[in-house]
Specification:
- The chain has 880 residues and is of the alpha/beta class.
- The chain is built from 27 helices and 39 strands.
- Strands 1-2-3-4-5-6-8-7 form an 8-stranded mixed β-sheet, sandwiched between helices. A 7-stranded mixed β-sheet has the order 11-12-10-9-13-14-15, with helices on both faces. A 7-stranded mixed β-sheet has the order 17-16-19-18-20-21-22, sandwiched between helices.
Length: 880
């Protein structure tokens, strides 16, 4: 992720979709600040300064254009190079409190400038330890009071005569983030209107020759039935009719301002053409061209920001919106209108999805091939789908993430309204390399991406065919309310395969109720099997098969029905499918296509396994959708200030970061109440003996030698030492082995046997704090049995972490091993996740092994690596 340093300018959207630049004010902005205040109306001047002294502008400019310090800051909002708003804070003398003031140019008021500045200033202040803003406003200043009220922070007001004293706690809780997200959604959708609902479209690079990208884009727009104005731009064909539209030499020759410009020119011409688009007043551009250098890319984004244009691409297939008959792609066929929104990075994947969704009859509502994602991304398309009524299913192909935290929050909100599907691209090492090379972004680890999609409620499939299978089901059927599947077949062997597939996919095939079985026995041939799976036999008629499906769907023990039919000369059972009271999928053995959808809306698959996987994905979506919204729990006994002091102290002495010494690492973990085997630090043999005596149990000695991370392999570990002589001998042996490199030993009580697990966290460059859980001990890397979630965890997410790895079966116990203390393990994971989330300087943390016993969980080894952290607010409104 390209993260702007805190002082770097960023661009964000006003409520009407117009882009503004937000940046720190500096001495060179003095005149601009004066001009802003000079041009205020008398009413605005009075409301801001409680008087009409225009000389206040220079005094304000002197104050806020000074160098920004840790106790004060000032931000400006710039629209097309003109300063249109200022926000500042100054210390009040109360610890953790600062006085905030805003001023917005009259001509841009009511467009969200003040709210946007308040969000950015609040985010900056939080990183500097400011806990609350305070502001004094005239009671008549309703616009400013509305800004404070609508911010989403729990504002407190105190009235005194005609003044209102407002206190804004700078929280970043769900209430605040929801308010920010809603403002972002409205602004983002407004900015996408010219892109997806344009009135005037121009195509630059439209050749006379068929088979060129520009020519085919023009032809698709025309043949697709777009009702707006369309122009080709080609100096060599100016004045002619080009593929059915008028052609001009340059954008300046257009008879009207274009909303959308599609760019299909050589890579080295893209930046210049984009600048022409900006000067023509275009609001959005789609750059299909590929091969831009990194420098070209930076310049292209800068040009788009300068002119306030949204950008799709480069290196993309184009965009489409069937609601306005817009097909601005170079696909071979127009997408059929329908209810699936599609956002992809790969144009080839996009073509495949458009073809499949059109063939199935699901159809497409809107489509964006975002390519290298310099600007418009999956986040934007999610907000677009959320805001219009046509889209009922979202399909994503995401190879890289710009802001995964915001993606997860947005996707979770959208997934509550419609199913979202994706395919996990780049799961293998070669796939990850390919994804990084053609999307110009770092590919993200599979485990972390799975965690992101799971927490966001996005159904993640392993391949494109599986995604299409799941889309066919979710587009036509309600998602199952539970995992119980009734399998019905006129071919018993197929029913057995389906039942096996259900077990593999985590679905169940429960026995049917007695009444249901009795009714089935009366209507089916005598040799039919009425348990679950139900074998109707090949002699069943279409009417009887249909009636059997209805009876089975009515059974209270059934959440979904899987009907398998083998076409025979006796009856065509395909006409019996559809209309049952429960979600239904079908398998037509011998079917040529992987999946088709019948006229009655039932998805029919070629193989039982495909149908079952689709049902499992639909069930996973429903389960996640129906979970109550949960917050990370309050945990007793946390001492974050103590942890922060340990981290800060280490980084003062080690500015580049590094591994915490064992004693400091254990103190850090103890500050968050993590369960540690009792320990002492020793630097001499006498200290080691004394420590062992205090612990009053068999102990282990762990040598601390800089650069040695795997103690077992390096011979830095001495186990099961009982008595003074054994401890002294072990210390002396370690001292002899490592000499002057030995800085000390960790003396630790031996832990009882139990299930050895890995509990850890990493600070991912893209995803932020991620908790890792799985099989632990010396074989952890060889087993590679682990899963992940983004921190901080909720209690439910901690439980999911514990359930998912294969090693979790050991925690449930068996004849030779008692069950582990899962609540203690859950508590440890929750505390670990809070530690990692609260302190992003922790870039790697391993508690391996963490031993879980029937009476608790205890970590017997810990490693913590720190690095300086650059502040980053993932939920702050800004463009990429």
């Amino acid at each position: 992720m390209t993260r702007n340093p805190p002082s770097a300018p960023v661009f964000a959207l006003l409520t009407d979709g117009v882009q503004v630049e937000i940046r720190r004010l500096r001495a060179s902005d003095f005149d601009a600040v004066c001009d802003l205040h000079r041009e205020l109306s008398e009413e605005s001047l009075y409301l801001r300064f409680f008087g009409l002294n225009r000389g206040m502008g220079a005094q304000v400019a002197d104050r806020i254009c000074r160098t920004s310090g840790t106790d004060h800051a000032a931000l400006g909002a710039w629209l097309r190079g003109e300063l249109v708003g200022v926000a500042e804070y100054e210390p009040t003398g109360v610890p953790g409190e600062a006085e905030v003031a805003l001023v917005v140019a009259d001509r841009v008021q009511q467009r969200g400038v003040g709210t946007l500045l308040l969000e950015h200033l609040g985010s900056l202040a939080r990183t500097r330890g400011v806990a609350a803003f305070r502001a004094d406003a005239l009671a008549a200043n309703t616009a400013m009071l509305r800004v404070f009220a609508d911010a989403g922070m729990p504002a407190r007001r105190r009235f005194a005569e005609n003044l209102v004293e407002v206190t804004l706690p700078l929280v970043s809780d769900d209430g605040y983030l929801d308010a920010v997200a809603e403002r972002e959604r409205r602004a983002d959708v407004a900015s996408l209107e010219p892109l997806l609902r344009p009135r005037v479209v121009a195509v630059i690079g439209a050749s006379r020759r068929r088979g060129t990208v520009g020519a085919e884009v023009v032809r698709n727009i025309v043949s697709g039935g777009f009702k707006g104005a369309v122009f080709a731009v080609n100096p060599h064909a100016a004045g002619a009719d080009l593929h059915g539209v008028p052609c001009v030499a340059t954008l300046a020759d257009l008879p009207e301002r274009p909303d959308l410009v599609v760019v299909a020119v050589p890579a080295d011409a893209v930046v210049g053409v984009a600048a022409d688009c900006g000067r023509s007043g275009a609001a959005a551009i789609v750059v299909i061209s590929s091969g831009l250098t990194a420098a070209d890319g930076r310049e292209l984004v800068a040009v788009c920001r300068e002119h306030g244009m949204r950008l799709v691409g480069p290196n993309c297939l184009g965009v489409a919106n069937t609601g306005v008959s817009l097909d601005a792609t170079f696909g071979a066929r127009h997408p059929a209108p329908g209810r699936a929104g599609v956002a992809v990075q790969s144009g080839g994947v996009g073509i495949a999805l458009l073809e499949e969704l059109s063939r199935l009859g699901v159809g497409v509502s809107s489509f964006a091939s975002v390519g290298d994602k310099y600007d418009v991304s999956a986040n934007d398309m999610l907000m677009w789908w959320e805001s219009e009524e046509t889209t009922r299913l979202g399909i994503l192909h995401v190879e890289s993430f710009g802001n995964p935290r915001k993606f997860a929050r947005t996707a979770r909100r959208v997934a509550a309204r419609m199913p979202l599907l994706t395919v996990l691209a780049g799961r293998s090492a070669p796939g990850a390399r390919a994804a990084a090379s053609h999307t110009a972004a770092a590919a993200t680890p599979e485990t972390t991406r799975r965690a992101l999609f799971e927490q966001a409620g996005v159904v993640a499939t392993d391949d494109l065919g599986e995604l299409v299978d799941a889309a066919a089901l979710l587009a036509t059927q309600l998602a199952p309310g539970g995992p119980r599947v009734a399998v019905v077949s006129n071919a018993g062997g197929a029913g057995v395969l389906a039942a096996d597939a259900c077990a593999d996919a985590g679905l169940t095939v429960p026995p049917l109720g007695e009444e249901t079985r009795a009714r089935l026995a009366r209507m089916l041939p005598a040799c039919a099997a009425t348990a679950n799976p139900v074998d109707t036999t090949a002699a069943v008629s279409a009417d009887a098969f249909r009636e059997a499906l209805d009876v089975i769907a009515a059974d209270a023990s059934v959440d979904a029905v899987l009907a398998l039919v083998a076409p025979t000369a006796l009856a065509d059972l395909r006409e019996a499918l559809g209309g049952t009271a429960k979600p239904t999928a079908a398998v037509v053995l011998g079917q040529a296509e992987n999946v088709v959808i019948t006229e009655t809306g039932v998805p029919c698959y070629a193989y039982p396994e495909s149908a079952v996987r689709a049902l499992a994905h639909a069930r996973a979506y429903a389960r996640r959708r129906d979970l109550p919204r949960e917050q990370p729990p309050a945990l007793p006994g946390l001492r974050p200030d103590e942890a922060a002091a340990i981290i800060a102290g280490f980084l003062v002495d080690n500015p580049a970061g590094g591994w915490l010494p064992p004693a400091a690492a254990f103190r850090l973990l103890d500050a968050y109440g993590l369960p540690l085997a009792p320990w002492r630090w020793a630097e001499t043999a006498d200290q080691a003996v004394a420590a062992a005596r205090e612990l009053a149990a068999p102990v282990v000695l762990k040598a601390h030698v800089p650069g040695v991370l795997h103690k077992s392999a390096a011979g830095a570990l001495r186990l099961d030492l009982d008595g003074e002589r054994a401890v002294r001998a072990a210390f002396e042996g370690l001292a002899g082995r490592f000499g002057a490199d030995l800085e000390g030993v960790l003396v630790q009580a031996m832990a009882d046997e139990g299930v050895e697990l890995l509990c850890g966290a990493v600070q991912d460059e893209v995803f932020g704090a991620v908790v890792i859980f799985g099989a632990g001990g010396v074989d952890t890397d060889a087993l590679a049995d682990r899963t992940a979630r983004l921190a901080p965890l909720t209690a439910g997410e901690a439980d999911e972490l514990i359930r998912e790895p294969r090693v979790s079966t050991l925690l449930r116990g068996h004849a030779a091993r008692p069950a582990g203390d899962v609540p203690a393990l859950r508590d440890a994971l929750l505390r670990l996740s809070r530690l990692a989330a609260d302190h992003p300087e922790i870039i790697e943390l391993d508690l391996n092994p963490t031993i879980v016993r029937p009476d608790g969980a205890v970590a017997v080894d810990a490693r913590v690596r720190l690095a300086p952290h650059r502040a980053w607010d993932p939920y702050l409104r800004r463009l990429r």
